Amino acid sequence: MRTGLVFGTFAPMHLGHMDVIDIAKEEMDKVIVICCGHEGDRGYPTFPLDKRYELAAKEFADDEKVFVTKLVDTDPKIKEHWDQQQIWNYWVDRILLHLFQKELITARDELCFYTSEADYAELITSTPQHIRVHLCQRNRPVSGTMIRSDLEGNLDKIVSSFAGYIRELRK
After folding, report:
1. How many CA atoms lie within 13 A of 155 on its CB side?
2. Do the beta carbons of residue 45 and residue 71 sit within 8 Å?
3. Which of 8, 28, 54, 66 would be a feasible disulfide site paired with 4, CB 3.0-4.6 Å?
4. Running DSSP on this structure, what letter comes out for residue 109?
5. CA–CA gap between residue 53 and residue 49 (Å, rounded)
6. Is 146 in contact with 124 (CB distance < 8 Å)?
7. Which residues does 98 contact at the CB level (< 8 Å), separation at least 6?
8. Whole-number mean pLDDT of the chain?
C-alpha cells in the first residue's frame, strides 16, 4: 500500500498543513497524520499535545483515507547533545516503530514523507531508512508562528476543528 506520512506539531493545524495533506491524499492510498510534541513545546499552553491529537482526529473523522496518530517526543533534550542529522535519524526510527506498533503500516508499504519544509526534506532523505520524501509547495503560505501571534485574527487560516476549539476557549 502506498502510504503518505505527514507530521507536525499542528499548533494549530492550518490551511498550509491541509495543502500538504491534500497533495499526499491525491498521490497515496492512505495518509497518516502524526501529531508530534511534548509538554512545554510551542503548542503550550493553548494547544497541549493531547488536545492537538483530539482535534486532528476530529478534523479527519469522516475521511476514510486519513489516519491520525500521536507521537510524544520523549526526549526533547537530545537536541543539546546530537547534531541535526542524528536527531532526524532517531526521529524517523521512532516514527516508523510507532506506526508499526500501532499497525498503521506494514513492511510491504511504500512510504513517503510529505513536507513543505526544504530542510526537513533534506534531513529525512539523508536518514539511513532511505524513505522517499515529497517536498510540497503550499498553495496557502501560512505558518503556525504567524497564527499564534494573533489567534483571533487568523481563525480563517485554521482548520475548522481547531478554530472551533479556539472560539470555545474565548467564551
Report:
1. 12
2. no
3. 28
4. -
5. 6
6. no
7. 34, 69, 71
8. 92
Q: For residue range 34-60, list pLDDT tens digits in order.
A: 999 988 888 888 899 999 999 999 999
Cβ neighbours of residue 53 closer than 8 Å, sequence gap 6 or more: 35, 68, 69, 70
pTM over 0.85: yes
Quote the cell numbers at residue 73: 517526543
63, β-bridge pairs: none
Quick: pLDDT tens for 104-138: 999 999 999 999 999 999 999 999 988 899 999 98
Q: Is the pLDDT of residue 76 over 70?
A: no
- For residue 146, what is its C-alpha cell? 504567524
- Under 8 Å between Cβ of 8 and 35: yes
135: Cβ contacts below 8 Å, ≥ 6 apart: 115, 116, 118, 121
Which helix (H) or strand (E) segment holds residue 147: the answer is helix 144-149
What's the N-to-C CA distance of the chain in angstroms?
Answer: 44
Residue positions counted in the chain: 171
H/E stretch holding 31 reads strand 30-37
Burial of 33 by CB count in 10 Å (0-12 exposed, 13-18 middle, 19+ buried)?
Answer: buried
